[in-house]
């Protein structure tokens, strides 16, 4: 399933809640962005590379590792590598109350 995920699976779910599950438990995260990579090579890749950005409560502490993600409509997505990231300058003001996490799909 992981290899079949695409930008289209996430683009319409911005603002939606996903549950990130790992060895440390479960965290509810909000999808704040889904963006296509500008560096794709048409015809050479099975899918266009993309990234998704989540926010989660500041108390969450998702380290860089593989997680399972659940969504009410999309179901279970297993084996997604999620990494904490520094928020963009425009998001710094709200960053004291939330953490940012990204998953990149090549």
Automatic annotation (TrEMBL):
It comes from the Bacteria. Residues 5-105 form the DUF6916 domain. Pfam families: DUF6916. This is DUF6916 domain-containing protein.
